[in-house]
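#struct-help
A.M.: can someone run this one for me? Single chain, 380 residues.
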Amino acid sequence: MAWTCHRVYFRSASDLAIGYTEIGYVRQTRLYIPGRNLWAASIEALAWHLCTSQQPGAAEFEKAKTEVEETLRFSYFYPWREGRVIVPWRTEPAESMPGRIEGMPVEAYGREFVRSALRVGTKGVEGTAEDQALFEHEFLIGRDASGDRRWQGYLWLREGTTRNWPEILSRFSIGGERRSGMGQLRWEAWEPANNIFGLSQDCDKGEPVISLRKGDRVFAHVAVKGCRCRIQGEIEPLVGRKTDQRGPRREIEASGFFWTPGSEILSNSDVRSDVRMAVKAQGTWSVLVRYVICYDIGDDRRREHVAHTLLDFGRRIQESVFVADLDGELAETMRERLKQALDLATDRVHIFHLCVECSAKAESMGGAAELPKDQDFYIL
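D.P.: on it. Structure tokens below:
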């Protein structure tokens, strides 16, 4: 099912503290707003919107989470000024940045957008100081000389969605130190978008798909698992606190290892082929790999079952040959479902995965009409 893409602008109503890491007694902030924070804020805002009592409970949060993950995708958000998005990395030459993007060395970016202050940690609802709780807390500045800071990113809505998200997210909060008034954002404006950060996209798949080429930078965390293209940059574990109807919990939730925003796409050859990445529910990107699947199954019922399973992930190009563009998570799901459908003693399925360059070199010969294209969608 298709998506529609919108360029969205938020306005800061306060400073922002997006938790990153601790070095000594310094709690650092991220230099952008990750999609995960907006995913969590959307769930919370929708849960309150669905609530018919004084505050939402587990049922409202679970319903909101399901709807957000099925119908909504956010990119990462970056500071916006004078018609340009500012990112904390720079290419050489600077003019090579795509679209309306301005890159800055991270040191200069930090001087302009980040400040810090001393704070004291407190004990839960008691509000009393904890032992050895003095720390330095970094935050993203909510105002500059021209007024409130503005942030720009992208929102994808699945076609058929009827929620009024500008109203639901008219004012919301993200990040840390919210009890002290930080993290307040306001929805300012949105408009249709044909590309994101100057990169082309395909909104007709099960997930929004971004296309990148050699030299392009990524604007979100990219999953290392299942990545079959060359990327240059830093890798970090992506972790966060588990969240439920009571808010952020102390339990840590790990999502795996990811290339950081600003990492560069490399290539092994001169083939001008796209690296395609799917936008996931929490705003991270996953590299799509092209899989060719073929089978030899004697039993009619099992053969039909396998064919229907593969149509959940890709499309049929010949009677027993399918093509699917999947990330690592979906490829593993496909394998597990195939194992359940097969008689492993008598049936045989071949799965070939193609690198980006090899996929671009694929050829077709003959004039026979291709089988009708089945609707593209993924089972998550």
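A.M.: thanks! Helices lie at 35-50, 58-71, 106-113, 165-168, 300-311, 328-341, 356-360.
D.P.: also worth noting: The first helix runs from residue 35 to 50.
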